[in-house]
Amino acid sequence: MMENSPIENDAVRRFSVFHRFLHIFVMISFTFLAVTGFSLSFSDQGWAGLVVSMLGGAESAAGFHRFCAALFYLVVVSHLIWLGYFKVVLKGRWTGPHTMIPNSTDWENILQNFRYIFGKGKPPLFNRFSYLEKIDYWAVLLGMQSMGVTGLLMWHPEAFSAVLPGYAINIANEFHFHEAILAVGYIGVVHMTSTHLTPEAFPLEKSIFNGRIARRRLKAEHPGEWKDRYAPTAPSEGTTDPADAAS
Amino acid sequence: MKTKVIVPAALGAAFLLMGVLLLTKSEAPSPAGAVSQPEPAVVAVAAPEPMEAPAPVELPASTAEKPERACLDCHRYANINTNEGVLAANGMCNECHADPACDRTINGHKASLHVTPEELGKYPHEFVACVQCHADVARSPHQSDAGAQCRTCHSVHGEKTAHAPHLRVDCQACHRRSEMVRLDKTDHRVKLAGVDADGKPVDLTDHRLAEADSEDNCRKCHRADNEVGAPAAILPAKSALCILCHPAPLAFGHPIFALAILIGVAGVFLTLRFWLQGSVEGEERSMHRKIDLGAEAVWRTVFSRKFFSMLRVLFLDILLQRRILKESVARWSVHSLIYTAILARFALSLLAGIRFWFDPENPMALALMDKNHGFTGFIHDLLGLFILAGIVWVVIRRYVVKPEHVVTEIADNVAVALIGLLVVFGFIAEGVRITVSQIPPELGIHSFIGYFLSQLFSLSDWNWQRVYPWLWWIHALLGAAFVAYLPFGKMRHMFNTPLTYLIEDVSGVKREKRV
Fold this sequence. Notes:
The complex is a heterodimer. Chain A has helices spanning 17-41, 46-54, 58-88, 104-117, 131-155, 157-161, 167-196, 207-210, 215-221, 223-229, 242-246, and strands spanning 11-13, 212-214. By secondary structure, chain A is an all-alpha fold.
């Protein structure tokens, strides 16, 4: 059993199997959504034609886009179900050092981080999730609602225009397109750089894939989490603390 | 210099070729002449007397009064993809068919062909051109060989809507309101009847669609002593549980099947709960922690080199049953006859289901769903025979030969009886189906067991139309019982054994010889 123990001497666990699984699903479906969606909206470009022909035509690419969208939304639903499980069955807390909810500490962290970037202070001390990770999370969770609604409007325009005015479909189309650019831009620029292009993680941040993070790194980057869960004063590694189980 | 010679030569050759082409073209029969002779596919339900060839269409006298036209007003390819084009194209049809006097004579009776545009406006196909469905009528002579076409726009529906999607039944037979149906012996399809039992033409001008999912509509055919070879009762569509052996929809289906699936799924969950009981480190309840640790272990194994060794076990020990072969060739043969045949039927059904899901027009999916298709009929009977042979061998081993190491418990008897009866009743039901639906020998012969049985049954003058629903229900209930019983009885080894093999391989447990 020891060889399969999630916690090894040099590394501790940061993400559960469930979360790694969801991340892989989000990663794949998001990539294909971006590729198919932009190939369809930039259809006059040569590369778009190539991609669409590889996917078997515009109809097929659109079908693939919707399939991936359904997969993506399935992840959102699974996550919401898990949140309920976390709260009700595991009696977990949504606040505290493991929180995803933005609070005043995040604001202080942002200011502190900018002071640090400009050489006027020490790096901020994050809890379980830094403000950047919280932005990542809420961008996906809220963005998927608006992308989902606008996408659904374009998927079934006949059904929706029975209750909404026709221009709602056009608005949905514009909204969907621009939010897609925002999302892909954010993932491509902020999410990728802030995770992979840090000296500690470069060239690849693996902790969302193998769930592990070196003790040393956790201590340095998320001292709040470290203190709460793994520091010698905290409960032992075999803890049954709900927050640990939820990790 | 050379090019100068080649160019005129090439030109000459081209002209020659054109000349030849033109010549052959003028010799070819004109398209109108090539049209095969009248469709006298219309045969009476009870009185299949040959009817007279359709009289040539007499243009109404009013036509002469119509304004003069350019040739291309009519002889053109109508753009029926726009509402304007549809209206223009229908205008041509309406010139005659809107006239109450528009009719034709069948068997000495006048049949109205009067269709009013106002009436048509009320039907679901309001914005569809007449020639969209009646695709081959705009020509001379003005008659249809193929009838109205539904499947240029619509796909066949799946098992969920109708049992074995009625692949030998024309769309119109169910979806039109006309009550008269007939079995066309030439292509063995159930169609709308053009004439009734007395040879009088049936009025088919009502273009409204029937409520296809109402039971009354099904009773057009599914009633006692029908002429089209339908079972006397309306049977439910297949359920998802049938997919073990038959192409089936992703639906619960009849409440009894739903119950069977729910019992089966509940059994799986109970088993999992049992496995996850107990504590890891003395806690009261550790299910969450056990799942957590188990998932972590699975994750690390799958994303490691052990994955390949798991693949090997999956192929050799699970798919090819190597470990059973090492123990006993006889045991491996018995087990493979049953297990491989069920697995093959399952794989074929899954293939049909998935292909149909993505493309309802896929010929392979439709062939696999069609019980009378040569390949499907043959392979289903062959695999069924394998299962039956395996079961017979098991019965001989367990109850006649009785080797010392074979211990027979109640669970074994139940499993053997369930599978055996399931297959036996499957074959009997198939035979009766072939008898009832009057499948001709050239089609039925591929189902070599079913067809043999059907010949046997047709020796008796039982009312097989009434017997078939009973047989179908017995087979279906046995299937439901099999699925519900899966996680509880002997059959749970279908999940347990492969899982044990994989866990043993990953954890490196030395395997002791099992008997």
